[in-house]
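Hey, quick one: can you model this chain's 3D structure?
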Amino acid sequence: MLDDRSHWFDVSAPPLARSEGSLRLTLKRRGALTVIDRLFASGCLKARFAAPDLRHAGDAVLINTAGGLTGGDALDIAIRWGAETRGTVTTQAAEKIYRSTGGAARVSTTLEIDLGAYGEWLPQETILFDRAALDRDIAVSLAGDAAFLGLESIVLGRQAMGEAVALGRWRDAWRIWRDGKLIYADVLKMEGAIADLLKRRAIAQGAIAFASLLSVGPDSAARRDALRAALSESESCAASSWNGLLAVRLAARDGAALRRLVLRTLAILRPGQPMPRSWQL
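Sure thing. Here's the predicted structure for all 281 residues.
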């Protein structure tokens, strides 16, 4: 949906140096532990783990040392949970997408979860600034009885800092396969006068912070009713389940309210499990 203000890229701007980051992480089972099998990182992407000797890599924290992204920057992330492994991958802080002078920041995430494994992809929020542009793709491949919990969220500006996003571009695309069969596909795209679009009742009723959570596993559907009850006071939240998949949509007036909703949802989807330490800083 576009209007006359949608052509907001400055095509006359000179080319700038671009940030690029690539990360490949494979986890394997060693006794009762989930440990690193392979790790490769280049450019602005790094990974850190709870144990300094890297032997217990079940929980990994990704770091973008560039401090944010803008048009033309690119991140390429690939993570594989080997058979019978279990672990959570998160980020050190909220990712920031700054004003673009041409093109979009691109983030590609590929997640593979092998037989008997359980993988959690729980990055912190992505914050879009005015005139930012982001293209994000998440592809998840599950084998056999593998289970998955994933989160992606967007916050348009930081209200506490008096920031507002009038124009921009934002695209999120999810694809999930089990044993090579596509079981979930979703694309959300907004472009142009985002602030005006989000004020419409049929779109967001003024919300500026959004999250999608997907849970795939044998007990995912059983948590749907508990989630609906927990989110009943929020008009812009919903949970649906089908074919062993649970999808949750959250919308809020600001980033702080969205985080509270996300934490409430995750407490039901992963009962008794503490959030990654970086979420608590």
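One thing worth noting: The chain has one domain: 4-8+19-280.
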